[in-house]
Amino acid sequence: MTYLVLAFAIVVEVIATTALKEADGFTKPGWIIVTISGYLVAFYFLSITLRTIPTGVAYAIWSGAGIVLISAAAWIFQGQKLDAPAIIGMALIISGVAVMNIFSTVSPH
User: Fold this and answer.
1) What is the pLDDT of residues 9-43, one digit of tens each?
2) For residue 54, what are the domain limits?
3) Where are the transmembrane segments (predicted)?
C-alpha cells in the first residue's frame, strides 16, 4: 500500500511540474493554482511514505520515476524531443532505482 501512496505522490508531482511549465513564469493564475496545489498534495503523500520506506529509497524512486514521467509528459504534451542519450540516461536511472529496490537492505529507522 505504501508504494501505491508513493506512486500517487509521484504522479501528482509530475502533474504539478507540467503545470509549472504552463504557468509561464507564474503569469497564468489557473496554472499557478494547479502547480502549488499539486506540489502540496505530492509532498504530503511523500511524507506519509517516509513512515515506512527509507528516505533514500523513497527519494530515489521519487526522483527516478519523476524524471522519466516528466520527460514523457513533456514529449507527449509539450513537443519536447528525446534523443538517444536522453533515453539511455533514463534507462540507467530506472536501472539504478531497480537495483536499490531489489538489493538494498536499508531499513526506515
Assistant:
1) 999 999 999 999 999 999 999 999 999 999 999 99
2) 2-103
3) 31-50, 57-78, 84-103
Task: Report residue 84 as a C-alpha cell.
Answer: 538517444
Q: Which of 7, 98, 96, 106 is nearest to 48 (CA)?
A: 7
Nearest CA to 69 among 3, 23, 7?
7
Q: Does residue 108 form part of some domain?
A: no
* Count of Cβ atoms closer than 10 Å to residue 30 Cβ: 10
Separation CA 88–CA 98 (nearest Å): 15
For residue 101, what is its C-alpha cell? 529496490
pLDDT 10s digits, 30-84: 999 999 999 999 999 999 999 999 898 899 899 999 999 999 999 998 899 999 9
- 25 belongs to a structural domain: yes
Domain for residue 33, yes or no?
Answer: yes
> Of how many residues is the chain composed?
109
At which residue does the C-alpha cell 533514463 appear?
90
